[in-house]
Specification:
The chain is an alpha/beta fold and 297 residues long. Helices cover 35% and strands 24% of the residues. The chain is globular and about 55 Å long.
């Protein structure tokens, strides 16, 4: 069983479906409202646990109405919450999402996610030291992302940096990552490049090995030598939400089997995730992944 530590965000997504977006100052009636557990850290932790890993999450929740159900949901998935703090006087992270006509408007309030500190990562050092892989994203303070990269590097553990939401980062931070896992748009932002620069060129000049996600086309990876393509798995897509988080989780879970195998399994897991609604709702189990891989052998 692979051991994975995820350092990242936990959100409650508040989703309203409406016939159209209201104009400024206007009130309209919506069609439906749902609450969905999310946040890139929580999503990746859940996906890794369903794929059979022993998973610990480092993060923070508020002591509001959303904190308890978010914690309970993660616990049901088997995620260790020893290093998830509940912060008095803080709200849990939320994403208020309005969906209309196939488009969406989103307002994210980080809440407790903005209080995940380098000191909290240091307190989780024993868990990181046991990990086979460490996952971190960028929905928490950048100083905490840096602390995770530096601690993982010091411990000799592979840190996978999923640079989303993307912004330029210092090159010395990026060099600490064992793998960067952007899509093409995120890689261009990360390297402060022009949007039209060829992604293979960007991969070659990145300061750390890159595993680049390409949606239905699969992924490209470079771990020394030239970039290599891994084809995607053809499926009927229903909802692509959470596909990237599933990909990253699977990469971490199977990294000990070697990069080519891990990328192939990550592409397969991501493909399965888009066949059902919701980010966490679509994330596959280890059995479902094995069935797809066997059918494609």
């Amino acid at each position: 069983m692979a051991r994975v530590v995820v350092v990242g965000s936990i959100n409650m997504d508040l989703v309203t479906l409406a016939p159209r977006f209201p104009a400024p100052g206007e009130t309209i009636l919506g069609d439906r409202f749902v609450t969905v557990h999310g946040g890139k850290g929580a999503n990746q932790a859940v996906a890794a646990a369903r794929l059979g890993a022993e998973v610990a999450l480092v993060g923070a929740l508020g002591d509001d109405a959303f904190g308890a159900p978010l914690r309970e949901g993660l616990a049901r998935e088997g995620v260790s919450l020893e290093h998830v703090a509940t912060l008095a006087g803080h709200s849990s992270g939320t994403a208020s999402i309005t969906v209309a006509g196939g488009e969406n408007h989103i307002v994210v309030v980080p809440g407790a996610n903005a209080q995940v500190t380098p000191a909290q990562v240091e307190r989780a050092q024993a868990a990181l030291a046991r990990a086979d892989a460490i996952l971190v994203q960028m929905e928490i303070p950048l100083e905490t992302v840096e602390a995770t990269l530096r601690l993982g590097h010091r411990l000799g553990k592979p840190v996978i940096l999923n640079p989303a939401p993307a912004q330029p980062l210092p090159l010395d931070w990026l060099k600490l990552a064992r793998y960067l896992t952007p899509n093409q748009h995120e890689l261009a932002i990360l390297l402060d490049a022009t949007p039209d620069e060829d992604f293979l060129s960007l991969m070659r000049r990145a300061p750390a090995p890159v595993v680049l996600t390409r949606g239905a086309d699969g992924a490209w990876y470079r771990d020394g030598g030239e970039p290599t393509h891994q084809s995607g798995f053809p499926v009927e897509a229903v909802d692509t939400t959470g596909a990237g988080d599933t990909f990253n989780a699977a990469l971490a879970v199977f990294l000990h089997e070697g990069v080519p195998t891990a990328v192939r399994k990550a592409c397969a897991a991501a493909a399965l995730s888009v066949t059902r609604l919701g980010a966490q709702g679509g994330m596959p189990t280890r059995g479902e992944l094995d069935t797809l891989l066997a059918a494609q052998a």
